[in-house]
Fold each of these.
Amino acid sequence: MVVPRIGKQSLCGIIGFAKSSKASLRCPEILRDGLRRLEYRGYDSAGIAVLSQGLLTIVKDVGSVEKIIESPGFSMLDGGVAIGHTRWATHGKPSKDNAHPHTDCRKRIAVVHNGIIENYMDLKRLLLEEGHVFTSETDTEVIAHLIEHFKSLGEKSFEAFKKAVSMLRGSYALAVIDVDEPDKIFFARNVSPLLIGLGSGVNFVSSDLASFVKYTNRVVVLMDGELGYISASDVHLELGGKPVDISSRIRVVELDAQSIEKGGFHHYMAKEIFEQPYALAQTFSALQTQNLSEVLKILAEARRVYIVGAGTSYHASLLGAIAFKRFLGLEAEALISSEFKVVSRAIKWGDVVIGVSQSGETIDTLLALREAREKGAKTVALVNNPFSTIARESDYVISMRAGPEIAVAATKTFTTQVLTLLYIVARLAEFIGSIDVDYRALIQGLKISHEVAQNILKASVEICKAIATELARKQSAYYLGRVFGVPIAMEGALKLKEIAYIHAEAYPAGESKHGPIALIENGFPVIFIYLGFLDELLESNVEEMKARGAYIITVAQGDTTLSSIARYSNTIIKMPKAPLEARLVTYAIPLQLIAYYTSIMKGLDPDKPRNLAKTVTVI
Ligand code: G6P
């Protein structure tokens, strides 16, 4: 397999379409739907460029996509070719000038870009010397001027585009329109994801399937180095100057437009929390149909297993690594993807590295897996998006079926990741003939985890709302657990930070007396995760916290007989009786609800937390 060069990326989203005049679709609708679907990738500014009757219209601004959609004249736009962009600033602050699309001096070429052009300063210097006038601080603008430069030397638009692309170093997904080729969108991909959507009388180019799935589910995933153009009726693709036949590359994806609507909920996050029973059931049945024999074989033979991920996916990785060790006694270690270098020298041929990533595009995880492969390890992708770069580049792919997750804060993909990792552990126990693990019982527990999730959701909404009312007034909170409870506590703390902007930290409960307890004063919220597994270890930690005035919230099985829970808790979230593996999958759910309702109580928008993006493709 060719390992593409490593590049830095940014987090923007791009959409472009070319439609025939006979197609009934309207330009403003396609752009509006596309931009809204892309907004989760980044949202400090947005913009569009539309070609109509030889004229290029550009609307862009700082702020949310709604500003563009509601701008005067937007609903009247009438073009057969258009591009749009949502930005998460890397080069240059969020501002109207820095928003995409960017144009050449004569405003005849418009460019949208996701990625980072590493040599843009050199190119800009040359273009400035030639007299080009720049209007932004971005790296992207050089692309428009470069195309203009090659056209001024006599090249036709597409040739000029290709020459410009050949000069770029770094990562890019590009969509470019040019007044001189009014029915085409030029595109190119290197490192940053880009897809072509094939509709009837309309074709799309986008960084994200969700932006056009309402119109078609026939897609071609572009590879690094590919470039070409779309028109309403044609797709031209080439690699290294040679045409590429796309007919064998067309895939029909199972994603319906409804699954990316809010479905009656106020926020995607709420929708995604409440659809966890479905996501778990779907993922469990998908796992049963996947052939895992090769993966089980390499895991059984591995000297050591590393599980890597970022953010929420790291927390799932941690829980997975604990399960490998506690249940199977195997050498397993979870690592934050961006810290993979810690073990670079320790990786040996035959080790297995599992990359856990909802999107399959997180650059830190991708780079960790690339490094692992270079060192001779086998790589396994555990992803929610089987078409992603991480899936494509890994030796083996295990796909979850959580459905699209739009809210920035991951919820259903955490529980489905945990389910998947525990399923692998169960199947591995069967494969190696472990006498310590009853794999049938483990699988049975996982099978019913969707029902447990349903019961938790039914039982804990009101109590989580009440807790949120308390937390909304606080500055900080601790989340404490032991063993498996630690990653769940970490996930709870991350959720509260991300969407409610409350400083929250998680610790192994036993560690809390070695420093964190210094902060405890009257009313300081401490959330204890009683998993029904080594719970007695938590008893003295709860007492210690209570003695210093902490406001104690416990997540615990309703039938527990532990006295510390009843004696010291201010509030108990009673969890239904369930086997351990189903508890491991589902105990993050009340913590997600607490964070969600706290965000609402504070008047925040949980779907759009500040400074964050859903898919992080910057190092
Ligand atoms: C971002 C998101 C997190 C996510 C992390 C890893 O930081 O905001 O919610 O957990 O990326 O994403 P991945 O797609 O690799 O799971």
Amino acid sequence: MATIELKQVNKSYDNQVSAVEDFSLTIGEKEFLVLVGPSGCGKSTTLRMIAGLETITRGDLYIDGEAVTHRPAKERDIAMVFQNYALYPHMSAYENMVFGLKMKKVPREEIQRRVKEAAVILDLDDLLQRKPKELSGGQRQRVALGRAIVREPKAFLMDEPLSNLDAKLRVQMRTELSKLHQRLQTIFVYVTHDQVEAMTMADRIVIMKDGRIQQIGTPAEVYETPANVFVGGFIGSPPMNFMKGQVVREGDALQLICAGEKWQAAGSTATRLAESGLQQVMVGIRPENMQLAETAADNVTDSGHQRLPFQVEVVEYLGANMLVHGTVGDHRLVVSLNHRQGVKAGECRHLLVNMNQIHFFHPETELRL
Ligand code: ADP
């Protein structure tokens, strides 16, 4: 079983644009790894360096423990699936799938066995004789996947393979790719700018920004303990709310002044603030870690919740949940409610913030406390 290891990999284009810096990571056997981040953060460059489509400026790459840094793409035994499918328009789906194998002089019976297997996995049987223009976007994507599968590579590299599909098909193909991964039991390295794709499919996620890794972890790890403000804001939808807070010590007690209110910091919250020794912090609250107080009596300290006055501006009803946009003092917040509540734009209500689920970050380094 294959592993892929990147050691301090760097890429600068024309010795000017630094696209990837000090990228180190070992991708485990059978792992579904997703590289995610905003446009231009270096995801595709990283993937293309693994594929051998882009040279590595500095650092080392190992596949199965073997140094392949300077080896050409065709000797790396890796298959790449692109966003635009890159199918030959004049060839049928079948011909597209077998073209690479014929070039490699794979015996005919072996080619037929592999195509048959891939066609079953991807449900392509009836489409094999069609040309790309006679196929829908989703079908073309399946042919592109089929062409990768028949190569029986050590790893599949995918660059935004679902971006050209409509929203519904994307959701469907996400499930299909997860099933395909389980079935093939091979490394998948998948590039996307969409954090939902990353969260739903990945065993581990690598979050990148400006060519650098921000955090590596399972979907639960990066969601529950974001390493910095960027990750907190990037993972999760709608994004985490951020507010500046002031830490005030009164004797042994510790208070957080935030959005013009005094928050009671107790338990682990107080410990984290005390240990930081900071006077200013960045407070992160996920939209789903707040509720609307139902009655005036819904109280604060006994339930580990902080009560805040909330001016409701916009209510978005989404069926399964609702998003309430509004302000607490000068701060704009979004609250996600998972059940229907009578709330209207213009109302003045109270929020209950779950104090055990708030995040603290350093105000300058933006690192998690
Ligand atoms: P992403 O896939 O995250 O959108 P890329 O890896 O494509 O990002 O690009 C990372 C950075 O490298 C960007 O600043 C981009 O403009 C630059 N870049 C990408 N390809 C080239 C190239 N062939 N020549 C010069 N700069 C490039």
Amino acid sequence: MIPGVRLVLLGKQGAGKGTQAVKLAKHYVVPHISTGDMFRATVRSGSPLGEKLGYFMEAGELVPDAVVIEVVETRLREDDSRTRGFVLDGFPRTRPQAEELQAVLEPLGGLDVALDLEVPTDIVMARLSGRRACSQCGANYHVEAPPQVEWTCDVCGGEVVHRADDTPDAIARRLALYEQETEPLLGFYRELGLLCVVEGVGLPNDVFSRAVEAVDARRERARV
Ligand code: AMP
């Protein structure tokens, strides 16, 4: 395994991006950059920006592109992501975000791969309605697969909660926005020759093995 990768993870809400992003980031020794986790931390800080973000997030709406792009660009300028790469989780979600990311990465050699986790809508609905998440580190659980100690995160000891945007209305809105704004990015990355599609149904470790195989195959093709 060659450490370092510049990877974006695509897939519907509930496709398992968060779970796979953590595993992939550890495997390739790169930071896991989740815009959702960064925004939730800003909301918890109680700052004026956090208050504004909370309004969009609770309703299942997208945060405006200009705000998201500024946050991601600042993060990508840090040493770890500049030198080793990253796993981007939850970004890009719109065409302007994807175009801006291409522009930012151009001097760094560009993106290696856009990995799409394919999961049918009925399965993501079932996952999202029973999902519980750590309010500190973002680790995901399910009412049928809770943490070992009552609603205390196995990873960091944080409180495991029902996310404010995992309500039926907000879930429906987020999935509709995915279809409208984010799904078209599959075509964008396919045209650039960067798209890898991986079946996201199954045990997390099996999905992870498929993902690593697809990423390594794509990097091998790009190298020769
Ligand atoms: P997530 O944890 O990725 O589902 O993100 C939670 C919420 O944060 C989303 O429903 C949006 O309100 C906001 N958000 C996260 N990433 C983005 C993005 N790239 N563009 C716009 N809004 C975002």
